[in-house]
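Title: Prediction job returns without error message
Component: structure pipeline
Severity: low
Priority: P3
Assignee: unassigned

Description:
Job completed but the reporter wants confirmation the result is attached to the right record. Sequence as submitted:
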Amino acid sequence: MQYNIEQLDQLIDRISVEDNSRAAYDLYKKLKDFLEKNKKLKNEDDLKYRKLERLMQKCQFLALNHFEDWQEIYNLIENNFGLVFTLPEYNFWNKLKNNLIYITDIKERDKVKKELRKTLSRCKDKIIMGGKYNTEVLEKVSDWVKDFVVNFGPDDEIDKVKKAEYLNNSSNLKKLKDEDRSKVVALLNFYEVLGLSSDSPLGMEETAIFSMDNKPYLLSRRGLEDIEHIMHKIEKVKMSEKSSLDANNLNKDYQVGEDEDEFESPQEIEEKIKALQKVASNYDLNTLEFKALQEEIAHLKKKLS
């Protein structure tokens, strides 16, 4: 089997936009198997071999919830973290926190988060290409993590005032173009959240929808929020969505937080995920409607993993 690099890259971009972790994992396995069976390619065409290897690693980031070995995840981050900025519409933290949630012991989860911070501090992958600047800039993930520590100190939690001052006054940040600056800010936000204990309201990874006094609430890093008015909006949108699903012989309605038929096929679950994703696209990322829908999408995806 031969692989076209350009076509593979386009396919992986599409998988990233669709957030299809199953497709990413399947492609990861195929590429890994191909590279293992064609090790001679490394000597014959090293550039192509390394490109295929990077594409395989992109798939690994996209399919993060399919990997249980934390050492494997540490290695991926330490050696290839820059790849997360090449994937369209990809949110690494949203992917990673799904892995963290499976660690039920909060102390163990905090240990993993601390190790993830250390892993970033060792990452020599470049997220900024200095060649396009006329002045010296920080390029590597490890360079920026060191800059964070210099400015914020060794404490796990970053002071909000210091963070605001850093974002507004950092001489290293001021050198960067907007696109590169956004990468560093994303890295800083990720580094920051890893320093928060999962036992604290701001550091918790889980969000949960539950009922109290016959009212629906969302518990997340933002605290406890009454979402009764939001649930009514979602139900209206979902009712119209159900009509289109019925037209495609998908006659099962679904409610946020409700258990689906245990005999549903993977295809039926994927159809539900796509429908919910379509509904979610009508809302801004920071709205409670979007977050509530994402909760149900995550719940369904767990059934596929």
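Comment from assignee: result matches the submitted record. Residues 228-247 form the longest helix (20 residues).
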